[in-house]
Amino acid sequence: MTRIRKQTLDGKIETLILAVLEDGPSYGYAIVKQLNRRCDGILKLGEGTVYPVLHRLEEKQMISSKWQTAENGRPRKYYRLNRKGHRAFAENLRQWRMLASVMEKVVGSCASILPKPQLKGGII
Amino acid sequence: MTRIRKQTLDGKIETLILAVLEDGPSYGYAIVKQLNRRCDGILKLGEGTVYPVLHRLEEKQMISSKWQTAENGRPRKYYRLNRKGHRAFAENLRQWRMLASVMEKVVGSCASILPKPQLKGGII
DNA sequence: CGATATACTATACAGTGCAAGGTATGCGCG
DNA sequence: CGCGCATACCTTGCACTGTATAGTATATCG
Predict the structure, then answer these.
(1) Are A10 and B11 a contacting pair, CB within 8 Å?
(2) Which of A1, A68, A80, B62 could be a cystine partner for A25, CB 3.0 to 4.6 Å?
(3) Which nucleotide is nearest to B4 (CA to C1')?
């Protein structure tokens, strides 16, 4: 299984992180682990990838952070979605669907050379 | 209908152009028009977007160019896929499927807030 | 005690979309 | 003829994003 490339993932990590936080507050290290575990073999994010995105998201006021000490004594910076982040996630999702539609329209037509795994229904 | 954002499209234009050329040789201006027409309302690429990508693709030896004069007297630079480009397109397609799978896994679970248009089959 | 996992941070780089601006020519219209 | 429009190409520079690299600190376990 090949790892996913940067240029493929580009612009999607923000959405992925928002999606994780959509399920409830979490902190950087856990987010990295969860995403990697969730997409084992395909996604292998480093901490140097995720933390800057978190800082950018906070800067854009989509998420808020709060330092908290876990039961194991470690300080953790918990992030949670705020209204702006919630809206951003919804918008990102819409954008994702649009992209999927475009790719389907353009690539789909000549993609018969590489048949799709399965897709019985049309546009995603 | 909102236009698709840069960060959403990021890294996909190369694939889109390769897809068009997969159907036969073409030239820059026509490629722009075709992509925009094909995805009317969503995609609005400028020439300043496409030409640099064509140059990069040629630099990476995925496509080759050949000047040719059209019947209307205008000089056109026709591009065609070569073997490397063909392989790159297949790889890009694989990457796209991987991305779709990742997005499905992570976003799909909590995406119930924004129900998908239709999808009866699972992974794209 | 040393290794490992946890948990955070900062810096610097490369690739990419795209806005902005420029050149040149053929064609139709008033 | 002059004007605008569509055609057809090009370059420069910016902003954003993933990520490699490097650094810090502490709890836990063999």
Answers:
(1) yes
(2) A80
(3) C17
